Amino acid sequence: MKLLIRDTLKWAEEEIKKSTDSAIPSREAEILLEYVLNISREKLYVKLQDIFPAESLEEYKSLVIERTLGKPLAYIIKKKEFMSLEFFVTSSVLIPRPETEILVEEVIKWAKNIKNPLVLDIGTGSGCIALSLSKYLEESFIYASDISEKALYIARKNALNLGLSHKVFFYCGNLFEPVKNNKKVFFDVIVSNPPYISPSEFPELSVKDYEPREALLSQEEGFFFFKRIISDASDYLKTGGLLALEAGIGQAERVCELMKYHKFENISVVKDLSGIDRVIMGELKSSFQII
User: Fold this and answer.
1) Domain of residue 156, residue span
2) Which of 72, 127, 136, 287 is the most exposed place for a label (fewest CB within 10 A)?
3) pTM beyond cutoff 0.90
4) Residues of the chain under the 70 pLDDT cut
């Protein structure tokens, strides 16, 4: 029996709706079909009354089933939009989140009047933070580190795709390791969306079977990486330099306390669109830069 594209989309929408917590099952069904047929949304709407191409039907059904089993859409179509830029993603990297755009936007606002700002992005993953900052802070130079070579492969691929390879420099290593031997370099901004899911929370995550564990899980009730980054940041920041971090639900207060203890000032917290304290920023006091 020949199926119309419209009817096949309706089937896919219903399958996604009943099997996932997607807020946009209809749009997800469309995105998967746009991916399979390699067409735009506009062209898809023109073709809704057409017969579904027989040679693509099994592939489409297979991808819909993957989605109903819980695989994130971004991993299926291998891309995710972030800060109006398209990023290639695989299961080697965390999927860029809308909440992290707030972190990037706040850093841009803070650094936009600095001439040639030097930025360090710790735990770069797909490179979404580093590359977005490079794109929108046109005179910036970005260092980006990650402990995963697989993640850095994805980040470098995104840098190439976005034409930013000449402005963003990627290094493999844990936290500050890649820059610790260069004591002549001090950064205007250190930014990070570190792992912050505690071991007790991790089993409840819907994406735990798909996204890289090392990009999510943090010991010490989710604060291990916050403690390491905040305590060492003064060795690498310029006087008055900015430390900007993304945090999880209920973590902002303690992150602020850690910043205060390690002599950061002008500490501020920015909420995400759900009203959650998401971004914490502080500036290094002038008397605490280590030279």
Assistant:
1) 90-284
2) 287
3) yes
4) 1, 183, 287-291
Cα angle for residues 155, 161, 163 (degrees, 5° grid):
100
Which helix (H) or strand (E) element contains residue 119?
strand 118-122
pLDDT at 221: 93
Which amino acid does the sequence have at 51?
Answer: I
Instruction: Give residue 291's pLDDT.
Output: 47
| Pair (223, 109) in one structural domain | yes
Decide which of 77, 104, 129 is a domain's last residue. 77
Q: At how many degrees (to 10) do helices 5-19 and 25-37 cross? A: 130
**Whether residues 55 and 138 fall in one domain:** no
CA distance 81 to 164: 17
Give exposure, 221-236, as e/b (b: 16+ Cβ within 10 Å): ebbbbbbbbbebbbeb
Beta strands in the chain (DSSP E): 79-82, 85-88, 118-122, 141-146, 168-172, 187-192, 237-246, 264-271, 277-284
C-alpha pair distances (Å), 22 with each of 52, 72, 87, 216 = 24, 10, 21, 21
